Amino acid sequence: MEAESKVKQKFCQHRVLVNLYYYSDSSGNAAEYSMTLLSHAADVKIPGRLSDRICVSVYGKNISELKRNVKRAMSVDPGYIELRLDYIPAILRRFVRLSEIDRPKNRIFTFRSYEEGGHSRISDESRIRILLEIVSKLDPPIVDIEIETLRLFPEVSDLVFKRLSFPAKTDLIASSHNFQKTEDRDGLEDLVLGAVKKYSPRFVKVVRHANEFSDNLVILSLYKLRERIKPTELIAFCTGSLGVFSRIACVSYGSPFTFASLPGRETASGQLDVNDMKTLLDSWTVARN
Questions:
Q1: Among 12, 25, 174, 197, which is most buried by a count of CB atoms within 10 Å?
Q2: Is residue 177 annotated as a catalytic residue, yes or no?
Q3: What is the rounded average pLDDT for all residues in the chain?
C-alpha cells in the first residue's frame, strides 16, 4: 500500500509528473503545455480501467520460449499480447509449431522490419515471404505491418485486403516507427490520414523517439485526429527515456492500448514492464476519478 501511495504521488499529481520531465527539457514552456494537455486528456471519456489497455510484447529465441512467454503474459490478463516473431531465427522452418499457439482475438502477430526496429537483419525478399506466410497460414487475428512495407510491396497489402473480407478476418495495424527523432506535426498528421485513406486499417500506430520532452506533446497532439479517422483507432507514443510520459499518457487520449514488456524483456527503448505499467495506470485511473 505504501509503494502504491508513492506511485500516485510521483505519477498522478500533474505538477509532480510534469516537473519530473521538465528539467530534462530545454523548452521553457514544457511544463505549462504538459499541464494543459493533461487537463484535456482528463476530459476524454475512456470507459473502465486504463490498466486494461496494455499490450504485452513478448518474444523468444525459439517457439518453446515464445510459448512460455505468452503464458507468462496471459497471467497478468492484458488487453492484448503481441508476438514478436522477428526474434525467431529461420522462422519459416518453424511454421508448423507456430500454428500450435492459440490465437484469440487479442493476439497481434508482428515481424518487424530491421529498418524500423526489428531483430532480424534479412533480405526484403525473405521478409516479404515470411509476412505472406504469416497472414495466409497462421490466420492471425491482428497483424502489424509497416506502412512503408505496405507501400513498397503491394503483394502484402493485397493479401491483407483479401483477409479483411474473410469471415474470420485479420485486422491490420498499419505502423510507422522512427527511433531517431520526432518529425513535425503536420507531416505526422499527413502520415496518419494517408494510411487511413489507403489501407483502411483497424489501427494506425505512430512511434517516434523523444529527444526532448516537447516531442511527447507533438505525438499526443495527433489524438485530435480521432474523430476524423473513425472507425480506425490511433496508437501514438514516443520511445526513449523521455518518451515514457507519452507511453503512459496515450491511453488517456484514447489509444486502445500502450505497450509494456515482461520484466527484463523490453522490446524497445523506454518500455516499462507490465507490472509497473499496470500500477501506474491503475493509479492514474484513481486520480482521474
A1: 174
A2: yes
A3: 84
